[in-house]
Automatic annotation (TrEMBL):
InterPro entries: P-loop_NTPase, Ras-related_GTPase, Small_GTPase. Belongs to the small GTPase superfamily. Ras family. This is small monomeric GTPase. Its EC number is 3.6.5.2. The gene is Rasl11b_0. It comes from Sula dactylatra. Pfam families: Ras. It catalyses: GTP + H2O = GDP + phosphate + H(+). Keywords: GTP-binding, Hydrolase, Nucleotide-binding.
Length: 138
């Protein structure tokens, strides 16, 4: 949620509840107007839901940004399964590669780091995903 709000408003808000939101946002990229629809789902809610809700979100989306905290190994460890589920649902239909980006958040909290940047890069490489480390706060 922090990255989504930062993207939409350029502001950082540190505390969020476990609520699901859909946002719309226009942005000009390379001279083209792009309309983003962002379905922001906290991982705690995602893990508690039935598969049908997750399947609905997967079918709805054209691309995926999966965010983990570099200070939380569990949030990183769940990524391979999530990516496997996404690829099975999306790529099985039309054989096109689905765009997936893995983002390690909280880069500013390097003193609390539990997942190295190299681990994130290796995971992304092994799963054919993009990779970035960022700080929503910065």
């Amino acid at each position: 949620a922090a990255l989504t709000v930062r993207f939409l408003t350029r502001r950082f808000i540190g505390e969020y509840g476990d609520m699901e939101f859909i946002y719309s946002h226009n942005l000009t990229v390379d001279g083209r107007e792009i309309l983003f629809h962002i379905w922001d789902v906290p991982s705690s809610q995602e893990q508690a839901e039935e598969g049908s809700s997750e399947e609905k979100r997967i079918q709805w989306a054209d691309c995926f940004v999966l965010v983990y905290s570099i200070c939380d190994r569990a949030s990183f460890n769940i990524l391979p399964l999530k990516i496997q589920i996404i690829k099975a649902a999306k790529e099985g239909q039309n054989q096109e590669k689905v765009p997936i980006v893995i983002v390690g958040n909280k880069r500013d909290l390097h003193h609390q780091r539990m997942v190295s940047s190299e681990e994130g890069q290796l995971l992304a490489l092994s799963l054919d995903c993009g990779f970035y480390e960022v700080s929503a706060a910065e």
